[in-house]
């Protein structure tokens, strides 16, 4: 990726305005990140947009990420002062922990209301995150069959709805929001490889090549186990891609390698977790701290 990605559909601009206009009604903000790319999936606008509100950072899809790297990221965010939860929203793992933390963050405020004889009302939660980070899965798990929509409440924009999760918690949803320009090559590739950016924004063969290059550096054993190929760190990455293509029958007429087909296989199987639990980025001091994590495990 040599140029800046400008990918800011109109609905994302509206989402930013929606967050700004409704934030005064919100008690707690849940910021959802992709555990495989915690930094790249962290919209830099969110911190400023939600400034002054209690915020919980949730690393979703942690079941797809390298657990050792995830533990480093969790520690990293906690050292920054963030409250962190690990989630697998598809299967509901971590949902109960998140709910408890939401309530805990508002205990003091609710107690003050009760002391004054006032009804604190339900805790109002806003979930924010970039596209394809798992917001829909999380919301579906939170809502459940017993939830009731409360969209006709005063002060709520027409067409937007507060959803009653339970008696003491209401949820306000926002669509996924990216930032207007992505001028970092690494961030753009990370978002593309995990599916946050549509596949037609970047060249799919370039994405797959970069993904394979990183996997051969950090997850050679996973590649061997999945594709039955030997990984030679001294050989060009294209040779490894060719070997996987041949193992999967990715040929065109005349026996040429079908790079489009093998690229789609690699990306699809990475995104589904079929190659293994893999992370694409880690804190800057990962190399120094990795040994300590290995010793702990």
TrEMBL record:
InterPro entries to which the protein is assigned, alphabetical: G_CP_dom, GTP-bd, GTP-bd_ortho_bundle_sf, GTP-bd_ribosome_bgen, GTPase_MTG1, P-loop_NTPase
CDD domains, alphabetized: YlqF
Keywords recorded for this protein, A-Z: Cytoplasm, GTP-binding, Nucleotide-binding
One Pfam entry name: MMR_HSR1
Cellular localization per UniProt: Cytoplasm
Domain CP-type G: 15-180
Signal peptide location: none
Main subcellular localisation: cytoplasm
Function field: Required for a late step of 50S ribosomal subunit assembly. Has GTPase activity.
Record-stated family: Belongs to the TRAFAC class YlqF/YawG GTPase family. MTG1 subfamily.
Record protein name field: Ribosome biogenesis GTPase A
Organism placement in taxonomy: Bacteria, Bacillati, Bacillota, Clostridia, Peptostreptococcales
